[in-house]
């Protein structure tokens, strides 16, 4: 049986990521719309994530993380090759602990998805989570989520505004549809929302609103 999962990180290790998110500048909605319609602006992207990259560098616990993040600060982004190497190092560590995880690439987003083949009788979630915490530190803990956010939201704009822009671009909602409309529709019980949440285009907007 194949079980897809994102490992739960212990509070102590996750604090740095929460801090990075809290420190990120919140761009206004007009800038978000302009950015999503005009494409990625390198200088804006660099400015948007520079604080988070520097915060991550301060929290780095391995030479690998320090090298990746130092390069990212200069380039304005984490490279795809470094992102993949970080996940590979994490995977190797997990396998060495007996956790047979694999990564596949989601073709709609270009991001790596983690999965694991487990036997229901032998699967020890506490052990796997503990192993994940240990293996993520120094490998992909500070790199994976930040790279994925930079890829799906290069301007570090309001996530919901980006989703709404994507839905409009794909003609799934009218041009008058707003962020508040999305929040209202998303809060409705199954079957009563006007959003076609089961459609592939809708799923793509959630996964990567810039595509």
Automatic annotation (TrEMBL):
Keywords: Signal. Residues 28-51, 182-211 are annotated as: Disordered. Residues 198-211 have a biased composition (Polar residues). Residues 187-197 have a biased composition (Basic and acidic residues). Residues 1-22 form the signal peptide. It comes from the Bacteria. The keyword Signal applies. The keyword Nucleotide-binding does not apply. Residues 34-48 have a biased composition (Low complexity). This is Lipoprotein.
């Amino acid at each position: 049986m194949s079980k897809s999962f994102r490992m739960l990180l212990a509070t102590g290790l996750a604090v740095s990521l929460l801090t990075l998110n809290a420190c990120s500048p919140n761009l206004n909605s007009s800038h978000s719309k302009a950015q999503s319609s005009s494409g990625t602006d390198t200088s804006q992207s660099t400015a948007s994530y520079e604080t988070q990259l520097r915060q991550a560098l301060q929290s780095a616990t391995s030479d690998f993380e320090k090298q990746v993040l130092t390069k990212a600060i200069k380039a304005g982004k984490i490279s795809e090759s470094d992102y993949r190497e970080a996940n590979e190092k994490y995977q190797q560590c997990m396998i060495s602990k007996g956790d047979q995880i694999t990564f596949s690439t989601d073709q709609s987003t270009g991001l790596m998805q983690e999965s694991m083949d487990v036997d229901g009788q032998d699967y020890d979630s506490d052990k796997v989570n503990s192993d994940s915490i240990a293996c993520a530190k120094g490998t992909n803990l500070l790199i994976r989520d930040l790279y994925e956010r930079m890829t799906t939201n290069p301007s570090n704009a309001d996530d919901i505004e980006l989703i709404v822009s994507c839905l409009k671009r794909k003609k799934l909602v009218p041009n008058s549809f707003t962020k508040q409309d999305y929040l209202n529709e998303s809060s409705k019980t199954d079957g009563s929302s006007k959003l076609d949440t089961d459609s592939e285009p809708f799923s793509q907007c959630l996964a990567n609103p810039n595509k």
